[in-house]
Amino acid sequence: MLTREQIAARVARELKDGFYVNLGIGLPTLVANYIPDGVEVVLQSENGLLGIGPFPFAGDEDPDLINAGKQTVTEIKGSSYFSSADSFAMIRGGKIDLSVLGALQISHKKGEPRGDLANWMVPGKMVKGMGGAMDLVAGTKRVIIAMEHVAKGEAKIVKECTLPLTGKGVVDTIVTDLAYMDVTPEGIVVRELAPGVTKHELVAQTKAPLLFAPDLQTMAV
Length: 221
Known about the structure:
By secondary structure, the chain is an alpha/beta fold.
C-alpha cells in the first residue's frame, strides 16, 4: 500500500502548467510538496491566499501565514491576499481548474458521469462547520479525491453513501493507497494498481462494483 506521501505525489502528477488549484484539508495539502519540476501551478486557499508554496521547514514557520486548515504555509513570488468572500467568488465563478479533497465515502451509479461525495460530517460527531468543500465540488472544473482506501476496517468506496452528501455527481478521479481510478458513466474504472496490490485484494476492500482498464498498469511511485 502507498504511504500518504506517495498518494500525494501521484496526485501531483495530474497538475498541469498554469492550473489554479485548491488543496483540501489533510492528506491533499501534501500535494504542494510534490509539484513536478517545470510545472507552475497557483495554489488557492479559501481563507484568502493565492500563491501557496510548500510547507515550511521546522523553525521557519510564520504563525500569521496559514491555509484554510490552519496549517502554517509558505508563499511564492507573486502571492496575493484578499478576503474570504473574494476567494469564494473565484471558486463559485469557475476559476479553479482542479480541487483535491479527502473523503469519508464515495459512491457512483452506472450511467452517471461523476461520483457522489460525502466528506464533511459523521452524524453524532462534533463538527465545526461545512467548510468550503460544498462550493469547491460545485464550482471546480475537476475534482480528485485523495484518501486511504479503508478507514477503521470500513470501505470508503460504496454502492451508496450513507453519510450526508457534500455533493452529488462531483467526483472525477480517486487516488488511494491501493489504486488510481476514474469515475465514468460505465462505472469506476481502475487504471493503476499500487505496487504489490492485486485485483482480488482491491475488490475485497471495495463495496462498489469496479471495472479494470484493458491497459491496467502498476502505479509508478
